[in-house]
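To start, an entry.
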Amino acid sequence: MTSLTASQLDVSSAQATAKGGTLFHQIWKRRTSYFLLTPFLVLFLIFVVFPIGASAYLSLTEFKGTKPPVYKGFDENFGALLALDLKELTLAVDKTTGEQLYRCDRKNIPQSQVAAAKEAGQTCEIAYSRPAEVLNKGFRELGQFNLLGKRFTLGVSDARFWTALWNTLRYSLIVVPLGIIFGLGLALALQRQSSVNYVLRTIFFLPSVTSTIAIATIWRYIFSSENYGLINGVLTQLGIAPITFLANPDWTMPVLVLMALWGGMGYNMILFLAGLQSISAELYEAAAIDGASQRQRLWQITIPMLRPTLLYVLVTGTISAMQIFDAVYVVLGSVERIGGVLDSGLTVVPYLYDTGFANFKLGYAAAIAWVLFMIIFGLTVLNLRLGRVNEPV
């Protein structure tokens, strides 16, 4: 390639200047537009950018709200929050005889006594060393699992956070798919324009525009474990023993899921109704002429054409489910802490609130917020990627 002469460079520079000039010149030409944007930019910097930056800084500090934050670095909060300790459990043996121990009905016995214990109806399994004996100091056991014929224990430094994270993921994996299924089902059932359907749409949508706190308060009364609870009051009148809903860990997650589905499927229904109305009726008419059944039309026309709506509901539903707070705070909150019996209903945002505003560990709470943000960001990117896999190039 030949190099440009000085005259050619001058011409190119003149052309570039004529087209727009320098960046400052372009900004000056549009100064009126930028001046009109200034109020928004100022508010955006003060109420969005600055709090995000302050939160990022606080996540690296020790801050209890009474004294200025003290910078500690990444390991102080994030290290304590995410630290894991994986250790192999060894077989337990009798220290006196060296005999292999078995665990029979919560009691360790030597192998020579196992046969008698089984004859007595006890269930016995190989006993392993206690997790507290092998885990590093400051770690609590999160769970055990077998791998390649060996027994391992996984320890964490913040057991409540991992419990909250697991509950949040489990809640999201149940609520989001069911919310999509029920919302789409309602939209398909109420798609036809009629007075009855208008009324039913309004009824199903009402919980979405009602105060979440008010709804959660009513649900707490409905599922109260005491006799004055609505369900238990009816059961008592019928001579049936009350059910310990909120006092039983096994009932905590079903109650939260039921509340979320009841309150959210009407909103999803409206979104799907809007998507269904954008599908041309000619597609269904052509499919019917070709002999397609109703199920085939659903899977071959309705679902593919609703992909943008499905993707939107999936992404926003996942974000909302991962940030659940009101229901847990009102229904499962107590004087001492949030989360219900044995933290069975504890999720990440209530744990963040409990850490920051009940225990005044504001730096640690900021670290929890950033970990949750990264998880939600990753799930959102994953959903967007999966939603566009089969899109035509």
